Amino acid sequence: MNATACYFVNWMEPENTAIARGLRRQDPDLLDRLIEQYQHRLLRYLIYLTGNRATAEDLFQETWLRVLERGRQYDGKHNFSTWLFTIARNLVIDLSRRRKLESLDSQAKDDETPLEIPDQSQPSAIDVVAHRELSERIMTSLAGIPADYRETMVLRFHEGLTLEEIAAVTRAPVGTVKSRLYRGMNALMPYLKGVRG
Amino acid sequence: MTHDPHQQAQELIACRSDGLTGPQQTWLQAHLASCEGCREYATAAEDLVRALRSVPITADRSLVRATQLRARVRAQELQQQQTRYRLIAISCVLVTLSTALTTPVLWQGFAWLGAQVRLPDLVWQAGFITFWTAPALAVAVLFAARGTHLEDRVRAPFHHERGA
Questions:
Q1: Residue B136 resides in a domain
Q2: What's the complex ipTM?
Q3: Is A136 in CB contact (< 8 Å) with chain B?
Q4: Shared-domain flag, residues B81 and B116
Q5: B140 and B71, same structural domain?
Q6: What pLDDT, on a 0 to 100 scale, did the predictor assign at position A115?
Q7: Cβ A194–B47 below 8 Å, yes or no?
Q8: How far apart are CA A175 and CA A164, in angstroms?
C-alpha cells in the first residue's frame, strides 16, 4: 500500500469508528447526517441496479431503515459506504425474490422502462437538451448490458469504490470484479463511441 | 490472465490505476507507447468513464426529508421497544425471584387453610395451583388479545412527493 493510501485508510478509520459507535446508539442525528452525505450516491446506485426511479426511491428509504435497525452489525473496520451498498444490494435482491424474478436483469426487464433520466435544472435550454440526450443515451446503453456488469461499473466509476470494496459488496472474487469491468466496458463501448461527458 | 498482450492491456485499462501493481503499470505504459490500438482503447475507456460520471442523478429534497423523518420515528420506536424489553426482562427476574421465595410459604399457607376448613388435600392443592397459575393465565389472555383487539392500528406511512 502506498503512502497516500495509508494516510487515507488512517483518516477514514476514526470516522468509521465514530459511525459504528453512533449506529450502535441508534443516534438519529448521525443518521440524518449520513442520509445527507450519501443521498446521491445511494440513490444513483439503486437506480442503476433497479432501472426504475420510483422503486429506487422506495428502496432508498428501506435501506436507511435497515441501516438503523442493523446498525450494531457495522463494525467500523470497513468503509461505511461498502456496508451501505451491501445493504442496498440485499434489499434489491429481496425485492427481486419477492417479485419471483430470477435475477437483477429480469427485474429491470419487468419494469419495462429503461433506466430513467432524472429531471435536472440546467443553466440553458440548449445545455438541458444536449445533456439530457447524452444522459438518455448513457442510461439506455447501461440498461442494455447485463446487471452484473452494470453494477460493477457503477460502483467502480461512479462511486469510486476499490476493487476489493466492490468484491465485498457483490460477494464476488476480485478476479471476477476485474473481468466484469473489462466485459462491461467492452459491452458499453460500441454504444458510447465518441461520447464525451 | 490471457496471453494476448492487447487483451491483457485492455483488461488492465478497464481495472484503472488502483487495481494495478507497479510492474503491471510499467508494462502497460510500455505497451501503450508502442500500440496505437490499445492507446485508442485507453482513450475510449477514459471517454466512457467521463460520460458515465456526467449523468446527473440526484436525490430529491423531499425524498431525503421523508427518509430522515421515517428514520427518526423508527429510531424512537426502537428505543421505546428496547425500554419495554428491558422492563419485561427486569419483571421476569423479579417474578422468578419472588416465585422462588414465596411458593413454599404459599404452599404451607394453603395447607394450613385446608386443615382449618378440613378440606381434602386434593381440593386445597387444586386451589393452590389455580392461584399460582392465575397471573400467568391472565397475561396469556392479554397477549392473545393483543393480536386482535389491542393491536396498534395507527401507523401513518411517510410519503414524499415524487418529482417534487
A1: yes
A2: 0.71
A3: no
A4: yes
A5: yes
A6: 58
A7: yes
A8: 10
Quick one: how many helices (H) and strands (E) in chain A? Answer: 9, 0
Residues B66 and B141 in one domain: yes
> What predicted TM-score, i.e. pTM, was given to this entire model?
0.70
Give dist(CA B111, CA B116) in Å, integer: 9
A83–chain B nearest CA distance, Å = 18
Domain coverage including residue B13? 5-53
Predicted pLDDT of residue A32: 93
Count of structural domains, chain B: 2
Contacts 24+ apart (CB under 8 A), B35-42: B35/B5, B35/B6, B35/B9, B37/B6, B38/B6, B38/B9, B38/B10, B38/B13, B41/B9, B41/B10, B41/B13, B42/B13
Q: Examine residue B73 and state whether it is found in any structural domain, yes or no.
A: yes
Same domain membership, residue B136 and residue B80: yes
Q: Are residues B35 and B81 in the same domain?
A: no
| Residue B94 in domain | yes
By Cβ distance, the residue of A57, A134, A139 closest to B162 is A57
Is the Cβ of A29 closer than 8 Å to some Cβ of chain B?
no
**Is the domain of B70 the same as that of B136?**
yes
Are the beta carbons of B38 and B13 closer than 8 angstroms?
yes
| Closest Cα in chain B to A47 | B57
Residues 51-80 of A with CB under 8 A from B: 53-54, 57, 60-61, 64-65, 68-69
Give a yes or no: residue B130 inside a domain.
yes
Ranges of chain A whose pLDDT falls below 70? 1-13, 100-131, 193-197
* Nearest-CA distance B121 → chain A (Å): 54
Residues B76 and B131 placed together within one structural domain of the fold: yes
- pLDDT, one tens digit per residue, over A118-153 is 555 445 666 666 667 777 788 888 888 898 999 998
In DSSP notation, A73-131 reads G--SSS-HHHHHHHHHHHHHHHHHHHTT-SSHHHHHHHHTSPSPPPP---SSHHHHHHH
